[in-house]
Amino acid sequence: MPVHAFIDESVRDQRYLLCMTLVAPAQLAPSRRELSSLLLPGARELHFKKEKEPRRRRLIDRIAALEVTTSIYLAACTRKTEEETRQKCLERAVADLLAKNAHRLVLDSRDHRDLHDRRTMQKALGHRPSKTELTYEHLNSTAEPLLWISDAVGWCFGAGGTWRRRASRLIDSVIEP
User: Fold this and answer.
1) pLDDT score, position 121
2) What is the pLDDT of residue 128?
3) Are the beta carbons of 157 and 167 closer than 8 angstroms?
4) Around Cβ 88, how many Cβ atoms within 10 Å?
5) SS3 label, residue 27
6) pTM for the complete prediction?
7) Order of all β-strands in the sheet with 4-12
């Protein structure tokens, strides 16, 4: 069955985390509804870094109940190597998606830096465009609630300790490309 993937990033303590959430087609609408129900009045997105601690606990517990999985691509980086590290992680994530016959990939937009992702995607898909059904696009996190899962899991994993344990039900694998 084709899956849909949603990627967001987190950088913490010279570690780059590319978080990819996989959602089965039957879980797309129910998961979006649940996530949207978690918004505060007037809010357009969930962003874990901006939430207060008690609310973070409630949010991750609700998110962990969703029928989704997340893979974390983890690599050391510096400010100078952050983009190169991201592209290495993205290349590995795309290879994993192709092996799973994924249908769609949504990446959290980084505005002008999306160009780097497009180059990596073209390189990864270029030699087999007719053999894959994988489409990809960049969207702002206000337009796609399923990106919020990757944001939350990346934040929790990076924070470690209790936060990582709270998100552990969602984490299928941690890969160091």
Assistant:
1) 83
2) 55
3) yes
4) 18
5) helix
6) 0.92
7) 135-139, 104-108, 4-12, 15-23, 69-76, 171-175
